[in-house]
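Q: Sequence in, structure out?
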Amino acid sequence: MRPMSPVVVTTSKFLACFLAVFGLYLVGSEGGGLAHCAGALLALLPVLLLVSWGEGRFYSWFRDGVFGLMTFVGLLSMFFLVCREVLGGDAAGFRSAENARSLRGMSVASTLAFLGGFARILVHMYDSIAWNSRGAGGERGHDRFDREPR
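A: Exactly. Output:
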């Protein structure tokens, strides 16, 4: 797939900057309830760049293992932060300053896990659509039209 016109590429660069800044703002916002929204916004960045720049340029810097590592680190850090809150709390309740730090850490960990997993899913979905539209033959053997008559 060739890259799109210069107007689309320039617009996608502007939109990518906006998505990145707004996604990072949502990660740092108070309350921590917007972590999945931030992860979804940040996960759209690789797909936007893939569509606007083309496969050649995108796959020159994209590594599938990076998003898998992000998902793993996010889930692992979320697990340890939750265990620390559950096991480290006293009977009267959690301390407010430490609780705020933990919530911020959980928000970042949740965003990281969601970003890694959702970006991987979207890029692989795009790959399968592009692969089938290029006429690569598709998968064989499970479609009823591919079977030979008996």
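Residues 96-133 form the longest helix (38 residues).
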